[in-house]
Design a protein that fits this description.
The chain is of the alpha/beta class. It is built from 16 helices and 21 strands. The strands form 3 sheets. A 10-stranded mixed β-sheet has the order 8-7-9-6-10-11-12-13-14-15, with helices on both faces. Strands 16-17-21-18-19-20 form a 6-stranded mixed β-sheet, with helices on both faces. Helix 5 (about 120-130) crosses helix 9. The relative contact order is 0.09. It catalyses: UDP-N-acetyl-alpha-D-muramate + L-alanine + ATP = UDP-N-acetyl-alpha-D-muramoyl-L-alanine + ADP + phosphate + H(+). Its main location: cytoplasm. Pfam families: Mur_ligase (PF01225), Mur_ligase_C (PF02875), Mur_ligase_M (PF08245).
């Protein structure tokens, strides 16, 4: 596919975080960009303000003339009328991952994979490189607060991309540099079991690294990944690139960084949590590989503002703290809750959690229960179904029963603001990947006005 010949692009599901980055890419190239999404959101309104034509009805009458490329997401049902129209009439129809693979194929890609931490690490890597004078483009899985977008346009061959394991999307990429942050079981509705996920997912991805390239792999996973080409271990306390002596100083997570290039002592990271120190470790490794200087790395780590919905502070004062996070897997919940506990020892932690997908709730219920038990108070919302139909017996009441402790309750999304007001939490976390982000504004107002 010749990207230069594409004048008109149509996106089905344009409001998705990965889809919107591609839409912005084509829009900045000067193509006419149109799209459908189910509902209007802050992101779709922003896209419209940038000149992208968006509608919210599944109706072929909205399809413009002369569409050169149709991009869709697997979240769109097969019965979608517009999708069926394009498929039946011979239009070039491609999944989001295919298009990202085509764009990055002629570039030097840094592809960051893992069941957790992709968005933070992709964004931090991009920010580090650009702050250190290393120009690059980037397709991000979240809205970077430093860039105010999920697509960053550069002017060199280097591109940083989030490599998504869902639907084996990352197998469309052929990176110069790969990263594997974690390989915990997830998306078993796609893979069936964890061994299949490893063999047909992550191992296959690692083998797609171009000759002469390498994969940075979190040290715990190197042996399980097996012989897949050149691998370089990183992590906390282990690996060729590692962080040691982690502590909190002056409100920053502070650590010493060891690598084959030498030692950097007392690096300070703006993001909280040991998991983010580990994410920073591989971002620094990549920056060093591409020629970054220590002084620039030090400054960038302190100045990085983070990503929307990744341990994002929406209110922080003596009256209380409100943090919003995208965590939707037990490991992510443990990381977010653990970071809050380390930052605010002795404070009472209240968490509002919205489970995401019936299958994920069923498959990881014990892990969710254990992670949520680390909170002092649990407010559990109903399961966000996304692309799934309900499963018999799998609901939030069933999950609630498995959470140890007494301070736990079911709560509807509509009731959350009033319940939070009654509880007057010291530290509040909203956690989940569904539409729980709609609670951000009212909860932020409450904390600002209390």
């Amino acid at each position: 596919m010749d990207l230069n010949s594409i004048q008109t692009v149509y996106f089905i599901g344009v409001g998705g975080i990965g889809m919107s980055a591609l839409a912005r890419y084509f829009n900045q190239r000067g193509a006419r960009v149109y799209g459908y999404d189910k509902t209007a959101t802050e992101l779709t309104r922003t896209l419209a303000a940038e000149g992208i034509d968006i509608h919210y009805e599944d109706d072929i009458r909205f399809i413009p003339q002369g569409v050169d490329l149709v991009v869709y997401t697997p979240a769109v049902p097969a019965a979608h009328q517009e999708l069926q129209y394009f498929q039946a009439n011979g239009f070039p129809v491609k999944k989001r991952a295919e298009v990202l693979g085509i764009i990055s194929r002629g570039m030097k890609a840094i592809a960051i994979a893992g069941t957790h931490g992709k968005t933070t690490t992709t964004t931090l890597t991009t920010f580090l490189l650009r702050s250190c004078g290393i120009d690059c483009s980037a397709f991000l899985g979240g809205i970077a607060l430093d860039f105010e977008t999920n697509f960053v346009a550069g002017h060199t061959e280097w591109v940083v991309v989030e490599a998504d394991e869902y639907d084996r999307s990352f197998l469309h990429l052929s990176p110069e540099i790969a990263v594997i942050l974690s390989m915990d079981a997830d998306h078993l509705d796609i893979y069936g079991d964890r061994e299949t996920m490893l063999e047909t997912g992550f191992r296959a991805f690692a083998k797609r690294v171009k000759p002469g390239g390498a994969a940075y792999v979190q040290h715990r996973w190197v042996e399980e990944l097996g012989p897949v080409g050149k691998t370089i271990a990183f992590g906390l306390g282990h690996g060729a690139y590692r962080a040691e002596n982690i502590r909190v100083e002056e409100g920053f997570f502070t650590f010493d960084f060891y690598s084959p290039q030498g030692v950097m002592q007392g690096l300070q990271l703006s993001l909280p949590g040991r998991h983010n120190v580990e994410n920073a470790t591989v971002a620094i490794a990549i920056a060093l590989q591409l020629g970054a200087a220590e002084a620039d790395i030090r400054l960038a780590l302190r100045e990085f503002r983070g990503i929307r919905r990744r341990f994002e502070f929406l209110s922080r004062s003596e009256k209380g703290v409100y943090i919003d996070d995208y965590a939707h897997h037990p490991s992510e919940l443990q990381a977010a809750i653990g970071a809050a506990r380390e930052l605010y020892p002795g404070k009472r932690l209240t968490g509002v959690f919205q489970p995401h997908l019936f299958t994920r709730t069923r498959d990881f219920a014990p892990g969710f229960a254990e992670a949520l038990a680390a909170l002092d108070e649990v407010l559990l919302m109903e399961i966000y179904p996304a692309r799934e139909a309900p499963l018999p017996g799998i609901d939030s009441a069933w999950l609630l029963e498995q959470i140890p402790g007494q301070d736990k309750r079911l709560v509807s999304s509509e009731a959350v603001p009033e319940v939070v007001k009654q509880l007057q939490p010291e530290v509040l976390l909203t956690l989940g990947a569904g539409d729980i982000d709609l609670l951000r504004a009212p909860l932020k107002r409450y904390f600002e006005n209390r």
